[in-house]
Every structure is written in C-alpha cells, then in structure tokens.
Amino acid sequence: MLVVMLIMTASSAMAQEAKFEVIGGLRYLLDTGAKTATLMPKTDSKYSGDIVVPEKVNGSDGMEYVVTSLSEKCFSDCSSIKSITIPSSVTSLGNFCFYGCYGLTSISIPSSVTSLSDGCFYYCSGLTSITIPSSVTSLSDDCFCGCKSLTSITIPSSVSSLGNFCFSGCSDLTSITIPSSVTSLGDGCFSDCSGLTSITIPNTVTSLGENCFSHCYGLTSITIPSSVTLLGDGCFGNCVALTSITIPSSVTSLGENCFNPLAELI
Predict the structure, then answer these.
(1) Per the record's keyword annotation, is Amino-acid biosynthesis included, yes or no (predicted)?
(2) Sign of the CA dihedral with 98 first, then 80, 104, and 39 last
(3) What is the C-alpha to C-alpha distance for residues 224 and 159, in angstroms, rounded to an integer?
(4) What is the mean pLDDT of each run of 10 residues along the chain (266 residues)?
(5) Which value, to the nearest 10 degrees, does the dihedral of the CA atoms of residues 88, 91, 97, 98 take?
(6) Are residues 241 and 261 in contact, defined by beta-carbon separation less than 8 angstroms?
(7) Which of 41, 109, 166, 210 has the largest count of CB atoms under 10 Å?
(8) What are phi and psi of 17, to 5 degrees?
(9) What is the largest CA-CA distance in the chain?
C-alpha cells in the first residue's frame, strides 16, 4: 500500500510540473517548476503565415514562462509558413524542427543556439539563405538535406563537424568554404550537390566520409589537403566532370568506387 501511494504521489508531482497551453495561437509545454516553455506542434492543424515566437509567455496560472526551446518536429510539414522569428531566449532546436517547411525562404538563428539538430531544416526546399551564428559548434546529420534552393551558406569558424548528409541534395549550391575548425566531413555530406563547381577543404580535415561528394556532377576540380588520410567508399563517385584529381601521399586508404572511373588519378 505504501509503495502504491508513493508512486501515485510521484506521478501527481510530475503532472503538476508540466502542462500544455495554447497562448497567442502557439502551443506550449510549460514547465511549472523551472518556469520555462517549449514550443510544440499543433494537434488540430498546422502553423502557417508569419510566425513570431515570443521570448516570454504568461500562463493561465498568471505566471511568466521563458521560451527556451522548439520541440522535435515543432513546425514539421508546415508548408504554408512564410517566416519565423526566433527569440534570443531559445537555446535548442529539436530534431526535424522545420522539416518540410517549403514556403520558408530565409531564417535567422539567434546566437543563443549552439547546435543545429538532426534534420533541422530537412527539405526546406524554398530556403535560399540562412545565417548561422558563431555560437553553433556542430551541424548534425541531414541538417540542410534537400534544401535545393540554397545558393550559398557561410559556415562559422566555431563549427567543428559536418554531419552525415548535412548538405545532401542542395542542388543550387555552387560553392562553399569550409572553415579550418572542421576536422571531418560526414558520409554523403555534399552528395547530390549537382551545382557545386568548387570547394575548399582546409588542411585540418583528416577524413572524407563515404559518398561525401558523390553525384556532384558540376564539380570540375578539387584539392585534397595533405592532412587527409582516408577517402571513404564512393567519395567522388559519379563526379563526371571531375577528370583529374591529385591524391596527396598522406592518404593511406581509398574506399571502393572512390572515383569516377574516367578520372585521372595523379
């Protein structure tokens, strides 16, 4: 009996710590203990139009809550969203936060955010520009995958890693500069970036993941720095315009089908 009572008491306490509320047309999970709010997906419809996320909200209990995060799939498949304003109180963007926001053309990420989560902007096909603050240290897997209208992006020197398929399918991306803070490029990182003609890889990078640049049909030349020791399977597969490439002596491992069969290896 005592055990049952303790479990019921604990469950009741947890229920009192968090509650859902719709405030100003936006749905939140309110943490009554920490006095913080997480923006959540709607349950009955999708967000649309111009979204302005406030820094603070007032709950039905009369208390003030600071908005600190956007939940996983918060705006997933909200294809009618035109713009989103994120306050500086937000420190976390959940996985697939903006997945499929086709109508979103630009967004500014506040400097309070330190990482872009998995699939954060996955298939935001209308996104043409984005500002990544210097507070961000990593771009996770699939972060900008399928952002086919993205023409340019500046990666800040605070970023140390580019996740798997991070920019895969960004077909309008013509060039990109990777900062010297980056040490590795994930699998498929720039795969299917068919408009990419040039890329600068810093001498801090030690490995290029599997299919890293596969199907980059417009890539005509690339310099692999002497810091690189590994080229993953299919790294430059089907890069049909890449007719010659210089491999530094530092490379000790070449993956299977690493290059276009017609490429001249120097």
Answers:
(1) no
(2) negative
(3) 20
(4) 48 66 98 98 95 98 98 97 96 97 92 95 94 93 97 91 96 91 95 92 94 94 92 93 86 88 57
(5) 30
(6) no
(7) 166
(8) -75, -25
(9) 78
Q: What is the pLDDT of residues 219-263, one digit of tens each?
A: 988 889 999 999 999 999 999 888 778 889 999 998 999 986 655
If residue 15 lies in a helix (H) or strand (E), which one and from where to where? helix 2-17
Q: Which of the 8 DSSP states describes residue 13?
A: H
Burial of 48 (0-12, 13-18, 19+ CB in 10 A): middle
Q: What is the CA radius of gyration of the chain?
A: 22
Residues 6+ apart with CB under 8 A from 87: 53, 54, 55, 67, 110
- Of the candidates 116, 95, 96, 213, the one whose C-alpha atom is nearest the C-alpha of residue 159 is 116
